[in-house]
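Q: Got one fold?
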Amino acid sequence: MSDAGLNETRLEHLRATIEADVKRRLYHGAVIIVARHGRIGFQAAIGSADLAQTRPLRSQSVFSIFSVTKAMTNILVLRAVELGQLALTTKVVDIIPEFSGGLREQITLLHLITHSSGLPMVFTPKPGMYIDRLDEIIAAICQNVHSVEPPGERCAYSPLANQALLGEALRRTDPKGRSYRTIVDEELFKPLGMTSSAIGLRADLKSRHIVPDFRGNFPIEHPGHSNLGPNGAFEEEHAEMPWVGAVSTVPDMFRLAEMLRRDGALDGVRILSPATLAMARRNWTGDKPNELYKVLAHKRGWEPSPAYIGLGFSLRGTAHAHHMFGTLTSAGTFGNYGAGSALYWVDPERAVTFVCLTAGVMESNDNIERFQRLSDIAISAAE
C-alpha cells in the first residue's frame, strides 16, 4: 500500500489499462492523478497528443477542458451568492434585461445552474457564428434561444446557454467591472495557485497546449474570430466561453478538486463555505432523467438513470447505471466532465480525488464506458 492509502497493485493495473486503451487506439493518451486524503498515490502521463504517438503527453500538458469550464463558472456564481452579489432566486431577466420575452422571464439562476431552465439543448445560438466572444453569444442567445417549456419541469443538460448566461451575470454584477475571464483568473485561478489555467489560450501556454482532436465525435464546429480552423475557438487567446473555454493541466485541476474535497478551502485560501458545498452536493433534480443523456442511453439500449445534478456539480447517486464516476464510488461522489475527454471527481466518503484529462475526443457513450472503467479501478485502490 502507498503512503496515500492506495493499493499500488491496483494503481499499476490502472496504468496498464490506460496503456492498453492507447495501444488499441481508443484515444491518444491521458494524464491522470489519483489521490487519497490529499496525498497523491498515482500520477502519470501516458501516450501522446496525437494518433501517431509523436508528441508524448507530459504532466504539465495543457488541455482544453471543454464543459469542465462550467464548474468554474458555477463555483464563482455560488461564491457571488455567498458575497451577496447574486442570489439563486435572482431572475436572469433582472440582470440581462434583453433576455425578456415569454417563459424566459421566469428563469432564475437556480434553474440555470441545475440545467432545469426550459431552454433548448443548443450547442450554438445561431448556426455558423463565431463562439469565442461572450458579448456576441449573449446577444445571439437573447435573439434566438427561447424557452421550449416552463423552467423546472425537466432536467435538460445545457451545452451552452445556461453557463453563458451565468458568466454574463457574473460580469454584469461584478463590483469591479471586470470581464468574465479576469474574474475567473483573479477569484479562482490565482488564489488556488492554478498557474497553468486560463480562460482562453493564454500566450505563454500555447507551446504546451494539446490542440483538441475531435475525430468526428462532436456534433458541431467551434469557429473563432481568428479563423484558425473549424474548432479554432479553442486556440483563441482572448476567448471568453463560460461553458467550454478554459484550459488547464491535471496538477491544476487537482488543486481545484482538492479545494472542493476540503470543503471549499485549500492552503489557507477559502473559495466557498462548507455550508454552500453541502447544499451544492445535494441532488436538486430528484428522479428526473437528464434529457440529453437519456437520448444517449437509448442509443445503446441502456436504462436511463436520474440526472443527479447538484448546484453546478454532477453527482454519482444511488442508481445502478452507466456513469463516468464509476459504479463503485459512493453515492455522494461529485465532479464535472467535458466532451469525451475530461473528468474529475471527489469521493468524500473515501477521501479519494480523481483527475484525468485525455487526448483524442471519444464518442459520448464510449467515453462514459471508458471513464466508468477507469473510475472503478481507481476507487478499488482505496484501502
